[in-house]
Automatic annotation (TrEMBL):
It is an enzyme of class 3 (hydrolase). This is Undecaprenyl-diphosphatase. It comes from Lactobacillus psittaci DSM 15354. It is a multi-pass membrane protein. Catalyzes the dephosphorylation of undecaprenyl diphosphate (UPP). Confers resistance to bacitracin. Belongs to the UppP family.
Length: 279
């Protein structure tokens, strides 16, 4: 049983690692995967697992961008260290909208919005939006291609777009990338700021989930902890590769392929729901 669960955790970790930073919705994919690769564990553990394995993916961002995000680096000039602190303050500002909306509504959203109807709709809607946005910007230049050009006001606006991702199937990275591009950021800058915004957002979401898990009186059995750690490690490795891929990809491609993928996946979810394969 433990070996089977570990294999399933590896599969789920791969799915999480691939989908966390690509704008295709990790929640939507894990929702589907739960029907195909369900862990042999109680529902309360599975619900916690699906959120907390994101910590592995987030750690990949810290590793990739450690130098850029480290305000204490002695290799940086005083101005560079100052700019790093300013970047972190902007990230904190961008987190505020999701905190204000997400904390009081978190449980309600999980209970009422995690279903195939909502997930299929958000997959398709945001897929269409990506295609429309890319068509609009096809022959236009981004207003800024420097991460430092994102102002505090812009950061807050991007954070407002992140609020949309509280609805399952939206994609946190997808919503924030869309928001950043709409205010004039290049694809590369939009993706990077989305990555950085994920650090406090997903750490906070994971911490909230763990606190709820413990407050409900649940504990971690030895095999459960192993399954969770395996999922996190795998998601870290795969996310590291996925982020590197995305950064290379968007230098020569747009996001339309992800938009079409979302639409196709959304249609598959609808068919699976109508045929009662998922609920």
């Amino acid at each position: 049983m433990v070996i089977i669960n570990i294999i399933k955790a590896i599969i789920l970790g791969i799915i999480e690692g691939i989908t966390e930073f690509l704008p295709i919705s990790s929640t939507g994919h894990l929702y589907l995967a739960d029907y195909l690769v369900k862990l042999n564990e109680p529902k309360y553990f599975i619900d916690m697992f699906m959120v907390v394995i994101q910590l592995g993916a987030i750690l990949s961002i810290i590793v990739i961008y450690f130098s850029k995000l480290n305000p204490f680096s002695l290799k940086k000039t005083a101005l560079q260290r100052k700019n790093t602190w300013i970047l972190w303050f902007k990230v904190v500002v961008a987190v505020i909208p999701a905190m204000i909306v997400g904390l009081p509504l978190n449980s309600w959203l999980e209970e009422n919005m995690t279903n195939w109807q909502v997930i299929s709709a958000t997959l398709i809607i945001y897929g269409i939006l990506f295609i429309i946005l890319e068509n609009y910007y096809k022959n236009r230049q981004a207003k800024f291609t420097d991460l430092n050009k994102i102002s505090f006001q812009m950061a807050f606006l991007i954070g407002c777009f992140q609020v949309l991702s509280l609805i399952p199937g939206t994609s946190r990275s997808g919503a924030t990338i869309l928001g950043a591009m709409l205010i004039g950021a290049s694809r590369y800058v939009s993706a990077e700021f989305s990555f950085f915004l994920a650090i406090p957002t997903m750490f906070g979401a994971s911490l909230l989930k763990i606190v709820k898990y413990i407050k409900a009186g649940h504990t971690f059995a030895g095999d459960q902890l192993m399954v969770l750690l395996v999922g996190m490690v795998v998601s870290f490795v795969v996310a590291y590769i996925a982020v590197k891929f995305l950064l290379r990809f968007i230098q020569t491609h747009d996001f339309k392929s992800f938009g079409w993928y979302r639409i196709v996946l959304g249609i598959i979810v609808i068919l699976a729901g109508v045929l009662n394969f998922i609920h």
